[in-house]
Specification:
Elements lengths: L2 H14 L13 E2 H12 L9 H9 L10 E2 L1 H13 L5 H11 L5 H23 L10 H32 L10
Length: 183
């Protein structure tokens, strides 16, 4: 399979992922293994790292999600775990936790989750459409190599700049812990 075909198939696969809205999440509470399976079924086709029970336990220990009741996770906890799974390849858990807290200010969890999912899916479709059929990865010509290098560089730079901006925004909206004051 050529590199170009593989890249285009990945773009199609990424675009085909049906990211769930709040109403698509299970209406009943889930056990840990069900949460892990549900989230991994979403992120695996995107090539994101898989979720493990240990990771979920760490999210609870760090206070990013609330502890399960009777070993079951609610729809709200599942939504937060999905958001974490999507963002963790780029952001620290502290940044993600601060972002989740801020997104939940003055709005319901389902509204915040749906807004995030719709923005994420829209970005995926937009990026996939922008690259669809334009990029020839396995080309031997110098001009095509330059196009690939430019696209790769632009995406990497945008990712870094956007990460920095999000981290600054989270820092700006996160209240300082008691006892810590700027000098």
């Amino acid at each position: 399979m050529s590199d170009n075909q593989e890249f285009n198939e990945y773009l199609q696969q990424l675009s085909a992922i049906s990211w769930p809205r709040w109403t698509d999440l299970p209406q009943f509470d889930l056990y840990m293994d069900q949460v892990v399976q549900f989230v991994n079924d979403l992120v695996r086709p995107a090539g994101m790292g898989e979720l493990t029970p240990t990771m979920v336990n760490n999210y609870v220990k760090k206070g990013i999600i609330t502890a399960p009741k009777k070993k079951k996770y609610t729809r709200g906890q599942l939504a937060n775990i999905i958001v974490i799974a999507i963002l963790k390849p780029v952001f620290s858990l502290d940044t993600i936790a601060g972002g989740i807290r801020y997104q939940l200010k003055n709005r319901e969890a389902q509204q915040a989750f749906d807004a995030f999912i719709l923005q994420f899916a829209s970005a995926v479709h937009s990026i996939a459409a922008n690259f669809g059929g334009e990029l020839v990865i396995n080309s031997l010509s110098e001009a095509d190599t330059t196009v690939i290098q430019d696209a790769m560089g632009q995406l990497a730079i945008k990712a870094v700049v956007q990460k920095l901006l999000v981290e600054m925004m989270v820092k700006m909206v996160t209240p300082e812990p008691e006892g810590k004051h700027k000098e």
